[in-house]
Amino acid sequence: MAPPLSSWPWASLGQYKYVLFGPLVWKVVQEWREQGGLPLGSWWLHLLVLFAVRGLTYQFWFTYGNMLFFTRRRRVVADGVDFRQIDAEWDWDNFLLLQTLIGATVVNSPLLPGLRQLCLWDPRGWAVALLLHVGFSEPVFYLAHRALHRAPLFARYHAAHHASGVTQPLTAGFGTPLESLLLTLAMGAPLAGAFLVGHGSLALVYGHAFVFDYLRAMGYSNVEIVSPRVFDAFPPLRYILYTPSYLSLHHRERRGNFCLFMPALDAAFGTLDGRAWALQRAAYDGAAGGGALGTPEFVFLAHVVDIMSSMHVPFALRSLSSAPFANHFILLPFWPVAFGFMLLMWCCSKTFVVSFYYLRGHLHQTWSVPRYGFQYFLPAAKKGINHQIELAILRADRMGVKVLSLAALNKNEALNGGGTLFVNKHPDLRVRVVHGNTLTAAVILNEVPSNVREVFLTGATSKLGRAIALYLCRKKIRVLMFTMSSERFLKIQREAPPEFQQYLVQVTKYQAAQNCKTWIVGKWLSPREQRWAPAGTHFHQFVVPPIIGFRRDCTYGKLAAMRLPKDVRGLSSCEYTMERGVVHACHAGGVVHFLEGWDHHEVGAIDVDRIDVVWKAALKHGLAPV
Question: What share of the chain is helix, strand, coil (3-state, %, to 5)?
Answer without folding.
Answer: 55, 10, 35
